């Protein structure tokens, strides 16, 4: 066994007594719906910041249906008015607990752009209407739940809570905030994929345990005064010194070592006498990571000390492998947040069961004909796997879902395609995506099970692909081929991101993808061309992109198709200098790429790149006194500049780019020559002036601007103008 398997299956628990009610057509959202189901109360109520869509791509639907399959009566309060406690009492008092989530997205990222401007739309809301969820939704919803029923246990989860489980840098307030479990006043925080820990918590609460007794569940965090009993701790408050930790056992095996009888005799040991002694059975020795925890620097320390913050972040990211992760223990004032090791990933059979639950695959009927853009985007797509071993520093998938790939069976996926064909209104025969966090990690795992359960590497593909990582894309190729054969399916598109450095390891996959599953354009994400930012992103160099592009064009030509590869890049990422951005723009121009949609780096909580952004230290390496200082584009002006350089073809950014190029000593890149990035200043860009060099008054020039530009006293100001005009009238008379 690999060490990544849970002791019991997700669906092995005895069903709760309310199983007799059976599955609901839709999980109820009102008292009237509860009455129609014959319920007098809900056992569990889920509060979410998203509209309720009964689809396996919406987290609240998955959690609700999984709990329902355990026999619990589950109600949903979707996008409640948070101005009072009344909407949180709509379904009455839950018998077991409130489950609170911000929804599929972090509420702050959902509500604000990377430049901290308020968004006026929300893809998870009917009519794409913004403002239907509060800032820091988990905290606000939790407060209202406590106001409604103060004695009901409160469990928080979803990506917003998951990425704030310890002290974390908050981009919007530009400071380090404490673990969200303290601000939400929650009893239990569930991080990562919630099915396994939440089912255990629900059954233990149903059995009469209190939250104070449920402190050891994997994948949860709780507030404590002391570590769990019988757990061994190591202090990591010294920079780059986690503490004395026994070495991890050799995952690839070791030779047995023994002693001969002559060696015992030489040592004066009588083997016969020793054999006559009673045998004392010693308890098995714990592995170094079993019942062990790491004491992180306190919130009060990391909030003011950037090296300690970088150090704590580095430790957290090392403790993410369920097979060998230790618990984390971090002080906040006179209390501690205790973060249990991650939950074990779901097995294929468990994944199939989760995705095979009776989802209606449509929004709740209460929304009528209102469009929910997020649903329209995914209604004909199929999630085939979870997790990502890419480890990109700017991405939160690894921190949330983990590096272990959890794949559904091919039979389960094909059955869902059949359901889409039969159930989704207006289905045209096109599956919009077969994917997940990535398109081409389906079925891929570490080939050495012992290594998989003890490895602490942040990425299995950076700086090079690990020799133990399986890169055989046969499972994905066969899935694509069989999916195309499903009756009524005209086209299978792949919209999830293709990890191209992995794809080129198996050209058969590239051929299958390009020949049958590209709708004219394929987006991939090199993210940058320069080694500086790429090393902080943990992304491969452009050599892998060039190889993929070569294969893409070769197989497109063989298929007789005109198809285009669209690269995606990030501007203002930590590690990026102004010169790096100029070099990227020159690469784009040389390849005739003109990007319209450009994303500035968005520092999401707990991501490695966010730590680099905040500390300006390379937390991907050991934190030492001489730790590398990283160039970090900060401030509105520099971030706008990097975005403008990436969109070098847009005249709106030319003045800013010219100023930057001159300051960098690269004025030779301004002009009409092929090597130039932007043209010289055009006549229409220069402010118009009079023959004396003063700004000219035009229909586009306001009087205030004209007056400000001509501040010297002269005949013609208001007072002199009146006097002069009066004298002229008298003279003429």
TrEMBL record:
Q: Which GO terms describe its molecular function?
A: 4 iron, 4 sulfur cluster binding; catalytic activity; iron ion binding
Instruction: Please give the Pfam families that the UniProt record associates with this protein.
Output: DUF3362 (PF11842), Radical_SAM (PF04055), Radical_SAM_N (PF08497)
**Span list, region Disordered:** 679-733
Q: Which UniProt keywords apply?
A: 4Fe-4S, Iron, Iron-sulfur, Metal-binding, S-adenosyl-L-methionine
Question: Per the record, where are the segments of Basic and acidic residues compositional bias?
Answer: 679-688, 714-726
The entry's free-text remark on the cofactor is: Binds 1 [4Fe-4S] cluster. The cluster is coordinated with 3 cysteines and an exchangeable S-adenosyl-L-methionine.
Among InterPro entries, the record links this protein to: Elp3/MiaA/NifB-like_rSAM, Methylthiotransferase_CS, rSAM, rSAM_horseshoe, rSAM_sf, UPF0313, UPF0313_C, UPF0313_N
| Span of domain Radical SAM core | 374-652
Q: Where does [4Fe-4S] cluster bind?
A: 388, 392, 395
Q: Which cofactor does it need?
A: [4Fe-4S] cluster
- Gene3D superfamilies documented for this protein: tm_1862 like domain (3.80.30.20)
Q: Which family does it belong to?
A: Belongs to the UPF0313 family.
- What is this protein's record name? YgiQ family radical SAM protein
